[in-house]
Write a structure and sequence with these properties.
heterodimer, A: mainly alpha, 8 helices, 66% helix, B: mainly alpha, 75% helix, 0% strand, globular
Chain lengths: 218, 202
């Protein structure tokens, strides 16, 4: 990393971290959002993929439509606006998922419809100031990307640890299952906790590295 | 005799939902809200839990009847969440009205918490489980009330655990959310010790 870039990153780290929803300020790792589907339903790569598509189709449209509606009214019942928007959009999302994955979506159980009240999707209602539509679109896409990344990572990791496969394909060099408990909710909690700790450690190390490089360049 | 049988069914499902089928430890429902609640000193856990139980109790019979109407429809899975949110909204306004009537000005701090207690995965998830597992009305209400109480108990237990853990030497990267998740995971494992990891009712 050159000193000029390090200095820029060091001076603007807080602003950059606030806007970055993928690594520095991931919605799952830093804010603990969207945990229920991750812990219980994302037990393998396929489930994680189906959840990812559902979040992709639900999160940004909900945020954008709700932002549009809240700007027109006084916004005192924002919670209702967000929940009704996501639940109406869910009807279309359900049929789209059914067309894509057929009966496989039944594997997700109640965790698919539960997405409509997941804080990841509706939490914006708690903030009183209305959101600009373009901001809703931008933040919605970034949050989706960050969440999908963690979903796929956890889904594949749990499948690998619990059954020695990834997306149903057995890993040839893995002769035994490493952690059968990984497919259970308790295993999901513990594994996610460890992944969070490692991720946060990496973020901390990255920030420290940037500040050190910036100081060295001065 | 019928009354005793009905009461025993209600309490059986309530107790099962509190311990064996705890919404947090068994199914991770409302866990995103829980990790916020244990860190947020501005929201009283018992107020939140009380409101959650009230919402569950009012919404449970409504969703039960709605689900009966939906049963013959092939596309019920697509519209069920929307209709259940509608039921939760009715419960929201009923509880809001009762609070304003009974507590008047004292209800103001609760009103800020009410949307959070109404629209969360702990409420919708429990109502969806009761519907998909074809519980009858008493079972649905017992399960809903028990889940609310179980959720509140889980928030208290996790909050107390986190308070104690802060005093110990927790490595920097594990502080906050990671250690809370690991702690919940270990508590969930302890519950598996009693019940096994499969759903035991329904």
């Amino acid at each position: 990393m050159n000193s000029k870039k390090a200095k820029y990153l060091s001076e603007n780290m807080e602003r950059i971290a606030r806007r970055d929803r993928i690594f520095l300020n991931n919605p799952v790792i830093m804010q603990g959002m969207g945990l229920a589907p991750l812990v219980v339903a994302a037990t393998n790569g396929m489930n994680a993929l189906m959840l990812s598509v559902a979040v992709l189709l639900l999160l940004t449209p909900t945020r954008v439509v709700a932002a549009m509606i809240c700007r027109t009214g006084r916004g005192q019942l924002r919670a209702l606006v967000y929940c009704f928007t996501s639940s109406i959009l869910y009807i279309g999302v359900y049929f789209a998922l059914r067309a894509m994955f057929d009966v496989e979506i039944l594997q997700l159980g109640v965790y698919l419809p539960m997405l409509i009240v997941e804080p990841l999707i509706i939490k914006r209602y708690e903030r009183p100031q209305p959101e600009r539509v373009i901001t809703a679109l931008r933040k919605g896409l970034r949050t989706t990307a960050g969440y999908v990344l963690v979903l796929l990572l956890i889904g594949c990791l749990r499948e690998l640890l619990a059954s020695g496969a990834v997306f149903g394909v057995a890993v040839p060099w893995l002769k035994f299952t490493l952690l059968p408990m990984a497919s259970l909710p308790a295993g999901g909690f513990i594994l996610l906790g460890v992944v969070c700790a490692v991720w946060r450690g990496l973020v901390r190390a990255y920030k420290k590295h940037v500040h050190t490089e910036a100081r060295r360049g001065e | 005799m019928e009354v005793v049988k009905a009461c025993s069914t209600f309490f059986l499902y309530a107790v099962t939902a509190i311990f064996a089928e705890n919404a947090v430890f068994g199914r991770a429902m409302g866990v995103s809200r829980l990790v916020k609640l244990v860190e947020d000193s501005t929201v009283d856990t018992l107020t939140f839990g009380g409101l959650l139980c009230l919402i569950q109790l009012v919404a449970a019979p409504l969703t039960y009847w709605v689900n009966l109407l939906l049963t013959p429809l092939s596309w019920r899975n697509a519209v069920r969440p929307f209709l259940f949110i509608l039921c939760s909204t009715v419960a929201f306004f009923v509880v809001l009205g009762v609070l304003l009537l009974v507590l008047k000005e004292k209800a103001r701090p609760m009103l800020a918490v009410l949307p959070m207690a109404t629209f969360n995965t702990a409420v919708l998830g429990v109502l969806l489980i009761a519907a998909t597992q074809n519980f009858n009305l008493l079972q649905t209400m017992g399960f809903a009330l028990g889940s609310g109480v179980g959720y509140t108990a889980a928030v208290v237990v996790v909050g107390e655990g986190q308070r104690r853990m802060r005093q110990d030497m927790v490595p920097g990267s594990f502080k906050g959310l990671p250690i809370t998740l690991i702690y919940i995971g270990i508590l969930a494992l302890a519950i598996y010790g009693f019940t096994g990891h499969r759903i035991s009712i329904g």
